[in-house]
Amino acid sequence: MPVNTDAIGKTYPVTTYAVGREKVREYAHAVGETNPLYLNVEAAREAGYADVVAPPMFVVVYAGRAITPALFDPEVGIEFARMLHGGQEFIWGPVVVAGDEIETTTTVKDISQRGGMNFFVFETDSRNQRGETVCTGIWTNIVRGE
Amino acid sequence: MDPVKLEPGDPVHLEVTPDRFVTVRYAGASGDFNPIHIDEEFATSVGLPGRILHGLWTMAQVARAHTDAGGGPESLKRLSVQFRGMGRMEEPIVVSGSVRSVEDGVAVVDSQAEQSGHRIIRNAVAEISVD
Questions:
Q1: What ipTM did this prediction achieve?
Q2: Helix, strand, or coil (residue B75)
Q3: SS3 for B22?
């Protein structure tokens, strides 16, 4: 069955995420980070940052929330039982620190069919309170054929 | 943060053994509560061998290998990966890779993450800003 590509180009309402110091530390611990920049306010300030620095992959926290409505959008039509996270790309700008407010916009970048599988590609664009793009994410989900 | 020097062929390496509760902590930290990662019964009911790691947790290990090599969080400018198969708890993961090229202050690094003979992340390509 051909995949419905009508949702390509669709965007979703902007989500705002306030980066908290303890959330950064919780995330850093969960992924095994030990760099004091992520964990210790004094160390981060000494290095010239306003507060603890979020590890680059913290993007999953502020952008993950923004992508959920797209994943569950019936117009996109993902069948979850057969969905796999196929690939992921992140492109980073300035680092995120506790106290930042990040606005993320999600777009359906592509929907296609190859080798009996459906590919759903989403793009997230995350900007800080100064309007700087802190991370662009390209999320590829694959739905296996029946 | 001062950029480090990297040359073609320089290694990127990290070894980590996820403990049996890592997916629970990561679910809370990341907000991804998909039960295939935290509920043994649910995971087996959908045909998995048991609870599996979050792919993005494993990608975070690949990212950590690169920020360690690059001298800190500011160094990592891009990372793309492909996920294959599934990561398990209590089995060692080895992230390994090497610098492919260095040009105009950017090192391009190829890497992968391997666990028990399976490349659970492959074709990882990173860009690290260098001195």
A1: 0.96
A2: helix
A3: helix
